[in-house]
Write a structure and sequence with these properties.
By secondary structure, this protein is α+β, with helices and mostly antiparallel strands. It is built from seven helices and ten strands. The protein has one domain (about 10-280): 2-Layer Sandwich (Ribosomal Protein S5, domain 2), CATH 3.30.230.70. It starts with about 25 loop residues before the first helix and ends with a helix.
Length: about 325
């Protein structure tokens, strides 16, 4: 006889809850009744803040706030593979490391597993983006620090890493953008919060809502699931599309359309941020060039005076009497 066991899905392993919020079906029901149900689906990003080049000690860095989710990404230039670990590879190697800040979560015992899952999924999302054929026998290390988690953690990390890669000067095929959407009890949540993601995991773990009659044999299985989609719009290519839960084909396509629309909005925002970053860097370069030019002019004037006056006369002309000593 076939047995189906509900297990925790790594896609939902991003909600940082303080303690067990939903320990009983009644807790799930109370929370679901307390949240605001979306009457119409608005496929738009959360309030977003992105800053490239936030760290001066590394070549590529970016910081992103997606609602209350806060992520910092750092990209170092490619470095040669260690000889002891070199293997025959036709493309460069990408290594992603995700770490939670000490204050980002209270579930310390789950942090290593969550970091491992997020690192693996982030690596899979960025591999189609980077031109790995340009650094053979080299590896690219990408590090992500999670400062706060309020849902959409993986998609926010993908967006932040995409900006950091451009800032570092790594060749990419396109800009990458990612977003998250889910469905629960016939309600579609775009950019779900950490509490909604936790509610979905509790449902998958068998802690369903009281109002759900999916346990009855005559009732169909109720749709519940989450979709994370990372896309590159120039080539109309999906870099990564991960889904968990039970979704009908038409619902899957609907959630996919919502995420693609959000990705297009985020793409325009990221393009504007990178354009402003280039303009800012150009302004700094021009200012530094002007300062160097003025310094060269001062040095040229000093050399000219030295040649005209001679060394002794030049030294004596630059000696000034101390007004305090003169008194």
């Amino acid at each position: 006889m076939l047995r189906v066991t509900q297990t925790k899905n790594s896609l939902l392993d991003g909600a940082s809850m303080s303690g067990e919020l939903y320990t009983t079906p009644k807790d799930c029901e109370d929370f679901f009744e307390s949240i605001e149900k979306p009457t119409t689906v608005i496929a738009a990003p959360r309030s977003t803040f992105i800053r490239a080049g936030v760290l001066t000690t590394v070549r590529g860095s970016a910081y992103m706030e997606y609602g209350n989710t806060k992520v910092l990404a750092i990209v170092a230039p490619p470095r040669e593979l260690v000889r002891s670990s070199v293997r025959r590879v036709s493309m460069g190697v990408i290594n992603c490391y995700v770490n939670f800040a000490a204050f980002a979560t209270d579930e310390l015992e789950l942090v290593p597993e969550r970091e491992k899952h997020l690192s693996s999924m982030l690596t899979k999302a960025l591999q189609p983006l980077v031109c790995r054929n340009e650094f053979l026998n080299f590896q690219l290390d990408i590090r992500v620090l999670i400062l706060d988690d309020d849902g959409c953690l993986l998609s926010t990390a993908i967006n932040c890493c995409g900006v950091a890669l451009i800032e570092c000067g790594i060749s990419t095929y396109d800009l990458i953008t990612a977003s998250t959407a889910c469905i629960y009890r016939d309600y579609v949540f775009v950019n779900p919060s950490a509490k909604v993601e936790e509610l979905l995991w509790q449902h998958r773990g068998g802690n369903a809502l009281l109002g759900s009659s999916s346990h009855e044999k005559d009732e169909p299985i109720q749709e519940h699931g989450l979709l994370i989609n990372a896309s590159m719009d120039t080539f109309e290519q999906l870099a990564q599309c991960q889904q968990c839960g039970y979704l009908k084909p038409e619902t899957y396509v609907q959630l996919l359309d919502y995420t693609l629309e959000i990705n297009r909005s985020l793409r325009e925002l990221i393009k504007r941020v990178l354009t402003e970053r280039v303009q800012e860097q150009h302004t700094l370069d021009m200012r530094e060039r002007d300062e160097d030019r003025l310094q060269d002019e001062r040095l040229a004037a000093i050399i000219e005076r030295l040649q005209q006056q001679g060394l002794n006369e030049f030294i004596m002309s630059n000696i000034k009497e101390d007004p305090h000593t003169a008194k």
